[in-house]
């Protein structure tokens, strides 16, 4: 008996095992899908969310079979199987998988293929030494490890990019927030010191009290935004997901009293029954509606703001998205101020409208929160007046639109 120490040497059993894997690749793919679905909080249709991706996943199994049959050729970095492994890593990043889940996913794949080979080898008649059989097992797990490495490396590359982006957003937000709160606290302290002066004319007290009240209200609004922002996490596993009408209804409820006091009728138009991040939609909708109420046209016989939404199978980048719009017949925004609407600290009506409280951070927080989830924000101004503020969040998959039939 010849010692089988070179794992790259040909093995008489390897071609038969490789052919068996290729013949069973569809069955193995679906077994892998079932095992993954049993371990993660995703519908099976979301694990491989398009038929195209599901059809190409067997390439991973073909790559394992090829390495098992021809180990000396290795798995080239530019091979189709590596490209598909990287594509899978990008998908898992977008779905919010963590590193452990990805590693476990490939552990499951290796176990499924190995179990198949155990059953297959019992029916084969090719001559094979014991050490040759062990070498085939080593090749199998080596192939899985190479594919796993490509997938995880691409996942980690995406994750590093996300972390760098979030850190930059956080630094910018902290700078703006610190500056804003410092100014507000300074105004409150200054007004308080003046109110404590002896001999302060009585006609000055209301103005100073108003400064204290407005800046305290501004700080509260800023802290409320921070609380809402803390509920957001781009990791889809950490998001509380609800149907869009439910999230909009909660936003409308929060502003019911403010709308009634301002004489603004809040309408809710057609909304698709798709799942969304509750925190993101509530934060953005509350902010948009709050601005519509604050800047309602006092001369309009009927003042209104309407929330409506729709789904699009292809946004600007070709991916499906859910769009929410808040329209109103209010004062609109001066044309020269529109380009800066979502800038931190910018208030479009600071000179033309009095008595409106605000920090100028609301729209920038909406932008940061929505973009952190892969979405976008914008505003439009119809010729008849008023404004339309909108945001879009990515849908998980094109078929997500079918959730309209789902019970609430």
Automatic annotation (TrEMBL):
Its EC number is 2.7.13.3. Residues 176-397 form the Histidine kinase domain. Pfam families: HATPase_c, HisKA, RsbRD_N. SMART domains: HATPase_c (SM00387), HisKA (SM00388). Keywords: ATP-binding, Kinase, Nucleotide-binding, Phosphoprotein, Transferase, Two-component regulatory system. It catalyses: ATP + protein L-histidine = ADP + protein N-phospho-L-histidine. It is an enzyme of class 2 (transferase). The keyword Nucleotide-binding applies. It comes from the Bacteria. GO terms for molecular function: ATP binding; phosphorelay response regulator activity; phosphorelay sensor kinase activity; protein kinase activator activity. InterPro entries: BphY/WalK/GraS-like, HATPase_C_sf, HATPase_dom, His_kinase_dom, HisK_dim/P_dom, HisK_dim/P_sf, RsbRD_N_dom, Sig_transdc_His_kin-like_C. This is histidine kinase. The lineage of its organism: Bacteria, Pseudomonadati, Gemmatimonadota, Gemmatimonadia, Gemmatimonadales.
């Amino acid at each position: 008996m010849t010692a089988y120490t070179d794992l790259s040497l040909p093995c008489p059993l390897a071609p038969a095992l490789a052919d068996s894997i290729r013949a069973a690749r569809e069955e193995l793919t679906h077994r892998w899908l079932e095992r993954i679905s049993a371990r993660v909080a995703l519908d099976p249709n979301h694990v491989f969310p398009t038929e195209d991706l599901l059809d190409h996943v067997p390439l991973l199994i073909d790559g394992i079979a090829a390495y098992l049959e021809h180990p000396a050729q290795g798995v080239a970095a530019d091979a189709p199987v590596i490209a598909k492994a990287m594509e899978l890593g990008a998908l898992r990043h977008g779905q919010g998988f963590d590193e452990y889940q990805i590693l476990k996913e490939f552990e499951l794949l290796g176990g499924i293929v190995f179990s198949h080979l155990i059953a297959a080898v019992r029916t084969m008649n090719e001559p094979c030494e014991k050490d040759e059989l062990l070498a085939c097992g080593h090749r199998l797990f080596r192939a899985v490890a190479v594919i796993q490495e490509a997938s995880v490396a691409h996942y980690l590359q995406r994750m590093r990019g996300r972390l760098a982006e979030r850190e930059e957003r956080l630094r910018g937000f902290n700078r703006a927030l610190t500056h804003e709160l410092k100014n507000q606290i300074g105004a409150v302290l200054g007004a308080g010191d003046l109110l404590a002066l002896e001999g302060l004319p009585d006609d000055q007290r209301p103005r100073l009290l108003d400064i204290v009240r407005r800046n305290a209200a501004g700080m509260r609004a800023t802290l409320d935004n921070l609380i809402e922002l803390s509920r957001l996490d781009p990791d889809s596993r950490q998001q509380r997901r609800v149907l869009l009408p439910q999230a909009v209804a909660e936003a409308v409820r929060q502003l019911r009293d403010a709308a009634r006091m301002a004489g603004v009728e809040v309408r809710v138009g057609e909304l698709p029954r798709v799942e969304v991040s509750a925190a993101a939609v509530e934060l953005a909708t509350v902010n948009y509606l709050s601005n519509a109420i604050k800047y309602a046209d006092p001369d309009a016989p009927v003042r209104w703001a309407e929330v409506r939404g729709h789904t699009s199978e292809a946004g600007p980048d070709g991916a499906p998205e859910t769009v929410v719009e808040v329209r109103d017949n209010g004062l609109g925004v001066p044309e020269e101020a529109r380009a800066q609407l979502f800038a931190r600290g910018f208030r479009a009506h600071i000179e033309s409208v009095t008595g409106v409280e605000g920090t100028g951070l609301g729209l920038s927080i909406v932008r940061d929160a929505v973009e952190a989830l892969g979405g976008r924000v914008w505003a439009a101004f119809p010729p008849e007046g008023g404004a339309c503020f909108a945001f879009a969040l990515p849908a998980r998959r094109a078929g997500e639109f079918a959730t309209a039939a789902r019970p609430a």
